[in-house]
Amino acid sequence: MGSIITYKKEGMNQMDAEARKVFEGIKEKAEKDKLIWNEAQENEPVYLSPEKEDEIMERMFLVFYTEQYLKAQEKIKELEEQLSEAEGAICVFRED
Asked: What is the torsion angle, in degrees rounded to the nearest 10, for the CA atoms of residue 82, residue 85, residue 89 and residue 95?
């Protein structure tokens, strides 16, 4: 049973790595979009079509929420490690 869990975690880590690569590409595009957006907001002659505005806003929200998700994942990993350490301490305490 332990090997199944290990395999699943390794698979999830691989998926996370692939997802992060895709996310970094989206994030890079969103940063360029943000420059375009700011320029459009500051300079009236720059015109963005409603479709382009929607596309930029959607990508900016995607980046924001993905970053929040990644932060939450890191926190979950930290808490899982703390739980594992606490469980180990309980086992050691019970053995004495």
From this structure: 150
pLDDT tens readout for residues 42-55: 666 566 778 877 88
For residues 37 and 39, give the distance between their C-alpha atoms in angstroms, rounded to a whole number.
5
Where residue 84 falls among pLDDT bands split at 50, 70, 90?
Answer: confident
DSSP labels, 23-83: HHHHHHHHHHHHHHHHHHHH-TT----HHHHHHHHHHHHHHHHHHHHHHHHHHHHHHHHHH
- 70: amino acid identity, one letter: L
